[in-house]
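Sequence in, structure out.
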Amino acid sequence: MKKIPLHLAVMLAMVLFLNACKKGGDEMKPEPTKPPVEADAPIFPKKEMRAVWIASVYGLDWPQSVYSVETQKQQYINYLEKFKALNINAIYFQVKGMGDAFYKSSYEPWSAAITGTRDKDPGYDVLKFMIDEAHARDIEFHAWMNPYRIATRSGTSSPFPALHPSVKQEWVVDFPTIQIYNPALPEVRQRLVDIVKETITKYDVDGIHFDDYFYPEGQTFSDQADFQKYGAGISTVQDFRRENVNKAIKGVYDVIVITKPGVVFSVSPAPEITKNYNTLYADVKKWNQEGWIDVVIPQLYHDIGNQYNDFQLRLSEWSQNSFKAALMVGHGFYRFGDPTAPTAFQSSGELQRQFDLTKLNKKVVGSVMYSAKYINMNKVGITDKLASLYKDPAVMPFLGRAVAPAPTAATNVRIENGELKWSASGNAKSVVYYFSDLKKEGIVLAITKANTISITTKGYYSVSTLNIDSQESKPSDVAEKK
């Protein structure tokens, strides 16, 4: 038998080796090193903002044409008590819906919704009352503003209300049914920034919130003169409009960071990213990428499988385009039980299915219901469904910027004589978690300012602390009640 030359033998061996590697594919690659997983590590529940929009335009949710001070105060308190019972932890109250204000403002008149008459002083500090009552129940208060709308009317035969003395007529654009501040004008954008600064300086709001009213939908906007005057370097009037709104958003974000950085800035855009961009001239994707807003809350008011705005599809799109902004979901609570709404909204099961999708989505950190009055109506048992979805309290996620010192972890967590006890420093709140089984996700048992709580159920307990920014300390090791 003829011997194979050495150099050919080496080449043959290399070919056989390479073929073996190809056949083995990925199986030949070593497994990546994974960090060790603690066998009995507790599974903590997801943090979650649970919020409700309270609309004040036309008195829709509050005060609903109630002009007695004590009666409208009680109406608002009743809302908060209902929300507290449902474990709702935030509200978005409309403090500027029609070029007006719910406090004595240097820039806008008193809202007609409070007294029935525009610019009439109601005789009490409405906004302070609302904030104080919300905070007394550990409910965050976010001041919801419409950035540009001043007034609406049914037709050209009805006049718009008189402008505030500080407003110049040349800042305003009139359409057949709506009157707005002109987004193209630097003075208008500065005015918006100044209004936000005044609000967060005077009042202890937790957030500033804008809705989806930027350029008015369905209106012919004659702004060629503005484009010629202010649009240097911008190629199209459409890009000019988007840049005007960009400047407003960036200006508001900057004044918040400089003036009161703990305040959270959020926007609730229309459900379609392209509609925001092409029709409302709101480049929300850019705001998310640049970090100009802290939270984006798309109004996903349609049902799962909807042919125009499928809830699941839009949720996926926003998940992919939220970038630096935290993502929450606006739910069309008002549609449940509405006979004109699609079949899906004739059953509370649709809300369950929507929540199932958001719970699986790692980016979603909360939900907002539109709007408050429908929670009291409970059509098709929808509020009962919300109660079951929110049956346990939730820890507010950390949003925005840290201002307070980081919380110090709870220490000396122990069970004595039927009580869970611990030590916590400062004025931090404590979160008590309960686990029936360390292999299953736990629940939030309580969020409390105390350092002891009675317990009767066997299982495992852990305690963490929260500072005023909703930053959470490392949870304690579990204490077991046998």
